[in-house]
Amino acid sequence: MNAAHVLAASTVGAGAVVAFWILAVISVAAALGLVLAPRAVHGAVLLAVVMLSLAVLYGVAGAPFLAFVQIIVYTGAVLMLFLFVLMIVGVSAADSMRETIRGQRLAAGLAGIGLLVLLALVVGHAAIGPAAPAGSNYGVLNVQRLAQLIFTRYVFPFELTSALLITAALGAMVLAHRERTSPKPSQRDLARQRVRGDHPAPLPGPGVYARGDAADMPALLPDGTPSPLSLNPVMARRRGSAIRVPGPGVPAPLPPGEPGKDGGPDAEPDREGAHP
Amino acid sequence: MLTLYVPILMLAALAALFAGFSLVMGALAGPKRWNRAKLQAYESGIEPTPQPSGGGRFPVKYYLTAMLFILFDIEIIFLYPWAVTFRSLGVFGLVEMVLFIVTVLVAYAYVWRRGGLEWD
Amino acid sequence: MIPGDYVALAVILFVIGAVGVLIRRNAMVIFMCIELMLNAVNLAFVAFARLHGTIDGQVIAFFVMVVAAAEVVVGLAILMAIFRSRRSASVDDANLLKY
Lengths: 276, 120, 99
Known about the structure:
The structure holds 3 protein chains of 3 kinds.
Chain A: H1 2-9, H2 14-36, H3 40-60, H4 64-89, H5 104-126, H6 142-153, H7 155-176, H8 187-196, E1 219-220, E2 226-227, H9 233-237, H10 269-274
Antiparallel strand pairs in A: 1-2
Helix pairs in contact in A: 2-3, 3-4, 6-7
Chain B: H1 6-29, H2 36-39, H3 61-84, H4 86-114
Chain C: H1 3-23, H2 27-52, H3 56-86
Helix pairs in contact in C: 1-2, 2-3
């Protein structure tokens, strides 16, 4: 603990400077990538890079609690929410990079340069000196000191935060929640529906001949004919699927050497016509 | 105070090493005999759920779950420094934290009542 | 650490975020750029707190993070409501109140 305090109080460690420059380059590059990447998903991942580097920078600057809050709240929760919404909106939707307002990019670039010059002048004039000697506020007592500030001097903002959370919950529920318009079917309803339907028993499962996908081989009925009921109807519609579900009137191609040619009443009228 | 993080850094380096080692060795040492069935997405043996063109989309109900997670995440973040200084804050700290939690529970009750927690 | 360097980095990140808000048309990316600006401001808060040797700046940065999380919840819900009615996440398409 003492050693940690001494280290925290030392003015500029070489490690801190190296870490700053590495992380500064990484975060600026990732931020530029966020602005320039056509796909929003890539932007979200690059934003995660920026946030993680900033978290490490907080740690270097003597704010370990803030570093972990940055990781837990920003990278863990906020960015996850962004990714959820991106998944809802569609991942691969890329922006068209065409300008919709003439000269917008030029104007935005000029405004950005102007803002940069303005802020650089302000910061340059401010004559920001070296860091003050860090007291016990930094180092291992950081969390305790932060807590004492939050729960005494900043107690009003802290309590207001809970009201803010109510607002957030309200907003999300009003904007994103869909009310059920019909009552939820109970187990009794589902069972009744099933018994009254066409198939009280389970549908036949797909075949087990695992030469291709087990799931797209139709099951064979006792007479050897493939059962279209055993296949997922989605699969039959899918492009590139090698298996066609035999329709009711079409003779299905049987796997060679299968039983079904001899014996057993043939269910399909066409086959009966072909083999009297 | 950076020395406090040396164990964490070592753990992170070990984790990265292990992940990289597993991927590289799996690619180098594993036998590869592909066929169509092996290359398909595996969903417990059933036919893989078809994805719409242009990437899959998630139902919107996941969003509410994520939102609730953020709200209670923030609550936990406040609880942690409070727990560290619980003794020195005394009754005052207890009262303000109870007020905070009760207020957040209003949001919880609202979401519950509106059916935001139902999964169907 | 040198607080001046931190503030300079914060300024650069803030300007990048502001330019991103101005040039991108995808509402999601605009929102992410706003988050980038908030992060840059947080970095400046931490740097100035270190400059003065106090931690009030850290408390403010902490509250900024909390408020940003709540803001993201509501903002993304709005974006999603717009997406559900217009099938587009571009800010050019949400123009009913423009004129």
